[in-house]
């Protein structure tokens, strides 16, 4: 009977729509988790970068201290040599070396001071970031927990719907099924529409009164003139839902 063909199509559509909804729900959650993971990694990386900079700064400071110590030793030698100079030229050359070492040591010292300040600043920044990392971590744990729960819940519902779908597909004619599949693919999931307020429920374009009458007879397969979806009568839709 034609009406049964139409009912079978409408039933299949309603199960497929529910499956689509479950899929879209699941499709959204992993994105949220991914986004949180990305944010968390970003913060962790920032901390790691700051820690690396601290290590570099400390190394540089140690090197500065070492260099300053060497310069001081040199300077001492030059100062000792001042007592053995034989002329003004030698004296000038030595004082120049001593002054040069003095300047260098000063530069190294102020550089080390700046490095100490930078390390302190970085350590403060890290302390500020730590609670944010913890916050993201616990949020991520929470979302992951939710995701697992919802996926588990969905799995049950999905399995139930899939089973129902298998049963329903057996009632759909092969030709109807291939039409259905083709339209579903072209129309973002909705292949079977009904009449609602004289319009196609898929595209909301008015269905001519004469055509509405014909559809109500439930004895032929009709397609919407505008969107190409299969059109079934309200009677068929309601019987399918029941
Ligand atoms: Zn339509």
How is this structure best summarized?
This protein is mainly α and 242 residues long. It contains five helices and four strands; from the N terminus they run αααββαββα. The chain has helices at residues 2-81, 88-170, 174-186, 209-216, 234-241, and strands spanning 192-196, 199-200, 222-223, 230-232.
What CATH architecture of the largest domain would you give?
Orthogonal Bundle
Which bin fits the share of residues in helices? over 70%
Here the CATH topology of the largest domain equals Helix Hairpins
Overall number of domains: 2
Shape: rod-shaped
What strand order characterises the main sheet? 2-1-4-3
Number of beta-strand segments: 4
Low-pLDDT regions:
none
Bound molecules: zinc ion
Measured distance between first and last alpha carbons: 19 Å
Main sheet characteristics:
4 strands, mixed
